[in-house]
UniProtKB/TrEMBL annotation:
<protein>
    <submittedName>
        <fullName>Uncharacterized protein</fullName>
    </submittedName>
</protein>
<dbReference type="InterPro" id="IPR045249">
    <property type="entry name" value="HARBI1-like"/>
</dbReference>
<dbReference type="Pfam" id="PF13359">
    <property type="entry name" value="DDE_Tnp_4"/>
</dbReference>
<keyword id="KW-0479">Metal-binding</keyword>
<keyword id="KW-0539">Nucleus</keyword>
<dbReference type="GO" id="GO:0046872">
    <property type="term" value="F:metal ion binding"/>
</dbReference>
<comment type="similarity">
    <text>Belongs to the HARBI1 family.</text>
</comment>
<keyword id="KW-0540">Nuclease</keyword>
<dbReference type="InterPro" id="IPR027806">
    <property type="entry name" value="HARBI1_dom"/>
</dbReference>
<keyword id="KW-0378">Hydrolase</keyword>
<dbReference type="GO" id="GO:0016787">
    <property type="term" value="F:hydrolase activity"/>
</dbReference>
<dbReference type="GO" id="GO:0004518">
    <property type="term" value="F:nuclease activity"/>
</dbReference>
<dbReference type="GO" id="GO:0005634">
    <property type="term" value="C:nucleus"/>
</dbReference>
Amino acid sequence: MCAGAIDGTHIPILAPVESHVEYVNRKGFHSIIMQAVTDCNYLFRDVVIGWPGSVHDARVLSNSAIFKNGNKKHLFPARLVKEIGGVEIAPFLVGDPAYPLLPWLLKGYLRNNASEMEKRFNYNLSRARMTIENTFGRWKGRFVRFGKRVDMEVSSLVNVVHASCILHNMCELQKNNFLLDWEVVGAIEELNEPEDEIEAAQDADNIRSVLTEHFA
């Protein structure tokens, strides 16, 4: 049922001449954001590149094509929908607390008041989310320049990053060797965005509850 994971990563840049303040992220350096959806094979399935570093992950998502298609139920074929506990559940993505809870995008429960069953769900969801963290690590390992400030016009950098994602996928599909030491070369600390405060839709909450009980 889990079709992939979604997350954002920051690519450091030199301060742009115009609107440079918008590109300062919460860590205090200039960056652009890459939102990505990845699968369990470390492949990029969807990327959105170029938003200024100050923008919240939830805003990047809400302005993306994957958000519009997800809300229209166009992300996955209808034949993949399954019924569990009387609730129809389509394939879904998993994300961190920065994202809204949606029927096609699940995130964990708040840790402060989570039950034991909910904590187990959070643990399993966190393990599923590791696929995108590993993908980012492998991508940055292959293209270490993105771990340092890139001196390039943002519009040009967006194209370069797009190309690197395609090349990364080619390397993974061809099973090219990847040295584990590469993962830490040039990497920057990821930014943990604050939790999204949008109230979850009832159907999304029902789906998460059913899955919590199903995998308990």
